[in-house]
Request: fold
Amino acid sequence: MTCEVAAFRWAPPFAQGFVRDLRVRWALEEAGRPYEATLIDRHIQKSEDYRAWQPFNQVPAYRDDGVEMFESAAIVLHIAAQSEALAPADPVGRARVTSWVVAAINSVEPYAHNASQFHDAPDGDAWIRDRRERANALLDHRLRAVAAWLGDKEYLEGRFTAADLMMTTVLREIVELEVLPRFPTVDALRQRCEARPAFVRALEAQMQPFRENSPA
Reply:
């Protein structure tokens, strides 16, 4: 059975290229596994049939001949468990990749989102400036930890894995904050991963229906 990935038929411009099905598409491209995208709109998204697949009516949702799943990180780990392109075969190596996948969405992404929320907020109120400074400081602390672990390695675990895939999708969301130049090795990781052919193919696959279904 070809893998099936639920994705949006269209998304607002600010979200295009960042919707979470990108993570799953990228993982499948790296693993060399064909897939079909099931494009959903708001009507399908709110249906009971779709809720039975994705309880929160979000994307992505995923199914293959063995499982039906939701949540991008869980899906990526499922794919990685079946492909040495995304994780080592040995239990120790897989455990470390799993740790970094979870770290990307649990130890870095919330701080990235928090900093992003205050990035464009007006400076008129002192409490906003204070919250922005605190959010930026906390994000810096997390990125400093990633940089320290990365050291002079090209990838988090020495070679490309699902860990780098997930971390890159988080880092892409804070490019506009202009914080990454302060962590050149972390930014180099992001750029290195975005240059991978599998990422380019996954991004184009997500963007194509957005172009085709753009509102007039």
About this structure: The beta strands are 3-8, 35-40, 61-63, 68-70. The first strand starts at residue 3 and ends at 8. The longest helix spans residues 91-119. The chain has a mean pLDDT of 95.
